[in-house]
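@here heads up, posting the sequence + SMILES for the flavin-adenine dinucleotide run so it's all in one place. Ping me if the SMILES looks off, I pulled it from an old spreadsheet.
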Amino acid sequence: MIPFELAEPRSLKEAISLLDGADETVRPIAGGTALMLMMKAGVFHPTRLIALRYVAGANAIELAGDKTLRLGALATLGALERTKGLRDAFPVIAQTLRTLSNVRVRNVATIGGNLAHADPHMDLPPVLAALGAQVTVAGPNCERTVAVENLFAGYYETVLARNELIAQVSVPPLGSKRAAYVKVTTRSADDWPALGVAVVIDAEGRNVRRADVFVSAATEKPTRLKAAEAALRGAEADETNLKRAGEAAASEVETMADPQGSASYKKELVRVFVARAVRKALGLGDAQGRAG
Ligand SMILES: Cc1cc2nc3c(=O)[nH]c(=O)nc-3n(C[C@H](O)[C@H](O)[C@H](O)COP(=O)(O)OP(=O)(O)OC[C@H]3O[C@@H](n4cnc5c(N)ncnc54)[C@H](O)[C@@H]3O)c2cc1C
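bot reply: prediction finished. Complex structure tokens:
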């Protein structure tokens, strides 16, 4: 391995001052589960890594009284999974974490790294986007807020500047809405998905007032499915309307091929699994959201 500098700042301000807006070989490192793989594979050669793990207070997790969830960027996925009250406030996050990789990775991987890496196969980004989560981005001169939905610019790309860091993630209360994430894996259950579909539904019984529908893994970044949302808005979640939503989703989505499946296979998955995600959120069909 080519030698590089390792900086260990104690504050967010110091960490940002060590970044270099013009040099892509200077990078923050959090859990290192993604970055170290890139280094081992020889696709990334750093000149300086800024280890974030000693940044004071950056791993805090707060589930507030109103059920807003605030996560410091360095909070690990394992710590989030073990957060008291998470299962009641955000069952969809608790369920998603259970099949995200394995406990060894979750104990090290951080929420900031999970979002900043922008791998379209990640499970949490579509869930957080559908939940309306926002990230606080800190730079040399100011902070800004970016909706998770708008964080991703493309395949492994975010809108973050090289001298900016994700500082916090905030998830608004789910309230009476219901949510589900369905992950389609072609090998083991905790494998990388061939498709991920996250839905958050505001409904009275089966009558949908609003649906937020995001697809990932089949697309180059987590993507809102607007035509599927329009098909569901104001509709009863019966089999005819769910089929219509699946057809709308498959027509609008631009899928990509990868080792988990071809583009046409993934389009078929979208057609079927948008309906399953809605059924799962509304407690219709079986536990996987298959029609009863
Ligand atoms: C064996 C294995 C299996 C996996 N399976 C799954 C899976 O099934 N589902 C899934 O969703 N994920 C899976 N993952 C991916 C895992 O979730 C990510 O690797 C992890 O979330 C990245 O977080 P990290 O803290 O380790 O990031 P790092 O590796 O430290 O960093 C990743 C990227 O984010 C940048 N970065 C880190 N923190 C910040 C910050 N605060 N601000 C700005 N940029 C930052 C780094 O510079 C780097 O570019 C798997 C990983 C492994 C190793």
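MO: The chain has three domains: 5-51, 61-171, 178-282.
MO: One more: The pocket of flavin-adenine dinucleotide is lined by residues 27-35, 37, 52, 73, 100-101, 105, 109-110, 112-114, 116-117, 122-124, 160, 165-166, 190, 192 (CB under 6 Å).
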